[in-house]
TrEMBL record:
Protein name as annotated: ATP-dependent Clp protease adaptor ClpS
Keyword check for Flavoprotein: no
Pfam families: ClpS
Recorded superkingdom: Bacteria
Keywords: Hydrolase, Protease
Gene3D superfamilies: 3.30.1390.10
One Gene Ontology term from the biological process aspect of the record: protein catabolic process
GO-annotated molecular function: peptidase activity
Keyword S-adenosyl-L-methionine listed: no
Domain called Adaptor protein ClpS core: residue spans: 3-68
Species this chain originates from: Ancylomarina euxinus
InterPro entries for the chain: ClpS_core, Ribosomal_bL12_C/ClpS-like
Length: 82
């Protein structure tokens, strides 16, 4: 049986600065600086953004690491993958 595909979302929190969020995304999600900046801008202006797609076990670890940094994230099943 194939693992379901999940999406990790970052939510805007008004607590952390732009640079802090960018650094966290680069460190935890292995984003390039351009990817991390784009995600941070989208999150700021739209309230949340999709930051990573993958299997639950991988994304759960990233979610925990981002939460440890104080960021608000959520993990949802990718309903468009089916």
């Amino acid at each position: 049986m194939m693992d379901s595909e999940y999406i990790l979302f970052l939510h805007n929190d008004h607590e952390h600065g732009f640079d802090y969020v960018v650094e966290a995304l680069m460190e935890v999600c292995e984003h390039t600086s351009d990817q991390a900046e784009q995600c941070a801008y989208i999150t700021h202006y739209k309230g949340k953004s999709e930051i990573k797609v993958g299997i639950r076990t991988d994304l759960s670890l990233m979610r925990e690491q981002l939460e440890d940094k104080g960021l608000i994230v959520s993990l949802e099943i990718n309903k468009t993958a089916y």
